[in-house]
Amino acid sequence: MLKKYDVIVIGAGSVGTPTAYFLAKEGFKVLVLEKNKASGRGQNRAAIGGIRATHSDKAKAMLCLNSINIFKNWYKDTGDDINWYQGGYFYPIYSEKDKGSVLSLLTIQKSFGLNIDFINKDKALMVVPDLCDEGLLGAIYSPEDGSASPLKSNYSFFKQAKLKGAEFIFESEVKAIIKERDRFIGVKTDKDDYYSDYIVIASGKDVELFSKELKVQIPVKSDLHEAGITEPIARLFDPMVVDIRSYPDSKNIYFYQNSEGQIVFCLTPSPSKYYESDSSTAEFLLQISSRIFDVYPYFGNLRIRRIWRGYYPNTPDGNPIIELLHSNVLLLAGMCGQGFMLGPGIGKLSANILTNKLSDNEKNIISELSLFRKFDNVEFFK
Fold first, then answer.
1. Is residue 379 a part of any domain in this protein?
2. Strand, coil or helix: what is 73?
3. What is the pLDDT of residue 212?
4. Fewest CB within 10 A of the end CB: N or C in the chain?
């Protein structure tokens, strides 16, 4: 019997699951195919939970503003607690060079409508008490950014999508896209064939197969980042703290205290690490400890509960790819480790693409994030 749907979504991760929810909400008959045993079991589970609109690219900032609006209203709209916490983002500045860079960027970000500003040293120490103040010049602060649990969020999108009629099949790996004449009509998995009017590719780092199938170059290369989480403690500060200073073995670090009181931390290695195992390393603890105390010295006695490693599927400019190919294959790729914060915004946009309900602003977003752009407008906060 022919298994026919309106839309097949490939991947039940940070982008695919909310996309399925918004498509089902629009009345589409949706099938989600996921190679893992459950939703959110790919790189979504490696996300640390930060959600911000403080990007240098307008399209990316607009998508994340939409995501923030969805996250912050999710409990009211669905009754599901995803641990949303509006603590903001905070970038301490310790050099005149970095200050000049962020101030020039600030003008651009404010033109996007972002609530963001440079605050002086005294105000910075009020926002994050006990921050290292030696050489501190001030900070970039965006109070409306926040955080949520990637695990709870993904499960909630999965649950809500199912309530709206979406079907999920797990342990089902897509091996090929089925083509008839000049149109793609379905997908072939390791278990069965499924057919649909539209196909949405949201497979995260596993996008190479589709580059060959669609005969297009998809410039995505995944590097590895590591993160960790501590025991819960009393509230110390609210925002995600991002230290943009470059060290010999790392480009930056960032950490925040989640809604349950745990400190979640991550480091961007330098040089980037490719083609390695995603198993966590002892080296990471040495790297993060040598840096994090330079920003917040009072973490010395905290006990770390676990560490992990995950992939960031990167594009050359640090911005995602959104492209409708062959009139019915929607490519959502290259989230650059920010699929969690981009996912709801992209999911809602995807539903508008397939229902042909795009606003002028949304058309501009799609144009700026096209697969066929020049990739020369590099995101400042990669």
1. no
2. helix
3. 87
4. N
